[in-house]
Amino acid sequence: MLYAVKEKSSEIVRAERRDDRLYLYSEAGMYRLEPKDSGTLRITYTQGNRFSSEEKPGVVFRQVYAGWEYWENAEEIGLGMEQLSIVINRNSYFAY
After folding, report:
1. Which of 32, 37, 40, 60 minimizes the number of CB atoms within 10 Å of its CB?
2. b vs e for 61-84, b when ≥16 Cβ sit within 10 Å of the residue's Cβ?
3. What's the pLDDT tens digit per position in 9-23?
4. Are 35 and 65 in contact (CB under 8 A)?
5. Is residue 94 a contact partner of residue 86, using CB atoms and an 8 Å limit?
6. Burial class of residue 35 in the structure, from the number of CB atoms within 10 Å of its CB (0-12 exposed, 13-18 middle, 19+ buried)
7. 28 contacts 10 by C-beta, under 8 angstroms
8. What is the pLDDT of residues 41-96, one digit of tens each?
9. Radius of gyration of the chain from Cα atoms?
């Protein structure tokens, strides 16, 4: 028998600044935004409930940059640093 399975929503339902990283939570998974300096941002995603602590090859900047701010409202989440700013749409995860 065939039946439809509802996909998990990718809408961002919660944002949290923890350990100088910004975590974005949805039903479908979790995004981690890691500022590395005043103009570099590393973005990772997992469908699980935590990120691996394993060191990844090719990651040049290991430290996390603390000089940033974020804001949020019902539609968007923004992250700003000295040389880079992004705004993320909660419903589509479209960043500009």
Report:
1. 60
2. eeeebeebebebeeebbebebeee
3. 889 999 999 999 999
4. yes
5. no
6. buried
7. yes
8. 999 999 988 887 777 777 776 789 999 999 999 999 999 999 999 999 999 766 66
9. 15
